[in-house]
Predict the 3D structure of the following.
Amino acid sequence: MTISDMLSPFDIPPDDRALAIRETLRNAIVDRRLAPGTKLSESEVGSLFEASRTVVRAALQMLAFEGLVKSERNRGAFVANPTPEEARQVFASRRLIEPGIVAGAVERVTDADIEAFRHQLQEEVRFMNERGPAARRAEIKASGDFHLMLAQLSGNIILQRFMDELIARSSLVIALYGSTGVSRCGHNEHGDILEALEKRDVKQASALMLHHIDHIEADLDIRVREGLALRDALDI
């Protein structure tokens, strides 16, 4: 069954269909299957999902609100193409927010949480050892999920929402400026952060997080990465 089959216009209310389209497009953007600057034609997206332009427009507006899509008058919608200054602002924001998230996580972490993080790191290793674009995308997602798990553990819903957007925007930035083709959100650095978390050492965990964010940003350059065509990126 294809995604378009699952999103039959006769089975899903318009609002829910817009959310489903938004989620599929968002995943393709965050996973870097859709490159920055890719045109998101309302007619093409509507055709792929068997949805009206009104529904598609609602989905694109959601993504625009998150900063993942930009709409240009008389030209249409495009995957956001962050400037170098916007890229710097994303990581500056992460430096302000993530130490606070770590501090909150240290206060709330349990032995069960530590085990969950260890499992997450095992997933990262598994994808690192596999080859191919699918494994690469999975590794990138697993790396971002580590940060989102910390945000969830912090117990601050507002910070969770900020991090969800920042991780998505970071993925866009890495897609455009990443020098290695994969995220430098390194497994070893995640392991060090987890070790400090397990020791309930907030000072060390926060310092390691800042070093980690510096490391990710240091891997950026100005080279543009090519993405897939819209149909291929969405696997429809």
User: Anything to note?
Assistant: The first helix runs from residue 3 to 6. Strands lie at 39-40, 69-72, 76-79. Confidence is low (pLDDT under 50) at residues 1-12. The chain has eleven helices and three strands.
